[in-house]
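Dear support,

We are seeing what looks like truncated structure output for some complexes. This example has two components. We would appreciate it if you could run it in full and send us the complete C-alpha cell output so we can diff it against ours.
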Amino acid sequence: MIAIDWGTSSLRAYRLNGDGAICDLRRSTNGVLACAQSFDTALLEMIEGWDDALIVMSGMIGSRQGWQEVPYLECPAGLDDIAGAMTQLSAHMLTKRTIWIVPGLTTINARGHRDVMRGEETQIVGAISNLGNGNLLFCLPGTHSKHVEMREGRVESFQTAMTGEMFELLCKHSLLGRLMHLDAPHDSAAFLCGVDDALEPGDLLTHLFAVRANGLFGLLSASAQPSYLSGLLIGHELNDLPPTDRLHLIGSSALIAHYEEALDRRRIPFEAHDDVATARGIHVLAACRGLL
Amino acid sequence: MIAIDWGTSSLRAYRLNGDGAICDLRRSTNGVLACAQSFDTALLEMIEGWDDALIVMSGMIGSRQGWQEVPYLECPAGLDDIAGAMTQLSAHMLTKRTIWIVPGLTTINARGHRDVMRGEETQIVGAISNLGNGNLLFCLPGTHSKHVEMREGRVESFQTAMTGEMFELLCKHSLLGRLMHLDAPHDSAAFLCGVDDALEPGDLLTHLFAVRANGLFGLLSASAQPSYLSGLLIGHELNDLPPTDRLHLIGSSALIAHYEEALDRRRIPFEAHDDVATARGIHVLAACRGLL
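Here is the complete output from our reference environment:
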C-alpha cells in the first residue's frame, strides 16, 4: 500500500510492504497550500511507478482547504474510532486506486475552547503500536505543537501551542528580527538561558521584549538572539505541560533535538520517537479498517 | 518653541506659546524609518513658516536608527535627570535654530533583563506636571506598551509588553489572520471574552490557538476574531500589572478606549490622560533645562 502524509507545506509518500515496513520514501514541497486544486496531478506525480491499489492519506489534505473535507472526530477517540471514521475519497482521476483519508481530531479543553489536530493522530497511532495502551503524554513539536494525553489507548484530550509559527513570525516580521543574525548556528547557552527565563514571572508579551533591549545593550549578541528566542518560546510551551514521569516526543530529529535540550534542562524525563510514525500509523489504521 | 514627537512611524510637530499651550499642530507619516537619512529635509518641511528658534525632539529620533544617538538614561530618573541628559544636536542644516533631543530611559527589571523606552518618558513628564509627584502607576498602550512605576516624581522602573506589535503580526502574517475579517468593526462581546479568557490557566501560546479552532467550529465568527484576539492580548498584558488603586492611562483616544473597556471588566480603577502629554512634557523639560 501507499501511505501519504500531506501537510500544509509538505507532501511525503511511503511505499509499504505487507508488514508495514517502508520500501521506498519520497518527499516534496507540494503541500496543500501549494497544490490548491490540482491534488490529482500532484499525487500522480508523487507515486509514479508505484502500482499499489490502496492509498491512505493523513494530514491537512482532509481539511476544508484540502482535497475533500473529512469532519473532525470528537475525543476521546481510540484506534477503532479513528479507523471507523476514515473516509473514502469520492471523486478522483486515479483509476484502479482506492484512496482513503484519515480524520483529524477535535477536543474541548479545560477552558471550554475547541482545539483541533490533523495528522498528529496518525503519528500517535504509529507510536502507540510500539508503546502499548497505557496512560501516556505526547509532545509533537512543530509550527503548531500538540500536547496529547492518551488514556488506555485513546486520545483523551490535547492542546495546541503556536510555538513554531510564533518563532517564524517574530524572526521574519517583527522588530525583534531586525537586530538578529537569522542564519546563525544554534547557540546552546543562549537557548538554555531562554528556557530558564520562561520560568520567571510575567507574560510572554513582556518576556519577548528582553530580546531587543538586551540586544541594544550588547548583552545578547545578534547571533545569539534567535537561539534565546527559541528557548524562550519552547520554555513557555513547556510551562503548559502537565506533570509527567515520561514525555513522549515525536517529530523530525532536528526539531526534537531542541526539545530534548530544553527537557533535560527542566529535568523532565522523555523518550524520543522517530518521524516515520506516520507511515506506521497509516498501516495500523488501514489494517484496523480491514483494508489490507 | 517647537515640540517634536518623532517616532518609528509617525512625526508630530507642536508649536507652543510661552505658557506651553499648543497654538498649532501638524502630523505626518514621516517616521524615523521612512526618513532614513533625510531628517533635515523632513523637519524643515514639517515646521515651514514656524520661525521659533528652539526645537526639542523626543522619541526614536534619538535612537541608533535616528538622527543622532542619545544614550539611554538609567532609572530611577526624575525630571531633573532627564532634562540634564538632554543633548544638543551637533550637526544640522537648520540655521538659526537650536535643536535638542530628549534621552530615552533604561531599567533592569526584576528578572535581571534590560528594558528601554524612548518618547514615553516625555509623555509621563507631561502627565505628572498635572498629577504631582506621588507614587503612580502608568500604562502607555501602543505597539510596545509600557507599564511605568513612578515613585516621588521619578521613574522607578518599567516594563514593555509587545501587545500592539503582536496583534499586527498575528492579523497580517499568521494562520490566525487567514480566517479573519480584518476590517470588521469592534465587537465588544468578543473583546471582553478575550479579556476574560486571558485570566484562564495556560500560556499565551496555547490561548492563541482558540482563535482558529473556535473559528473552524463556527463558535467565533470571522468578524469577531480580531476583537477576541485584541481582548486576549490586552488581557495578557494586564495580567502583568502590579496591583493598583488607580492606573493612569496615556495614549490616543481610539486605543485608550479598548484599554478602558478591559480595565472596567477587570475592575481596575483608572484615569485616562490625553495624547498631547508629549507637548506638555517637552515644554516642562525645556523649562527645567533653562532653555526658555
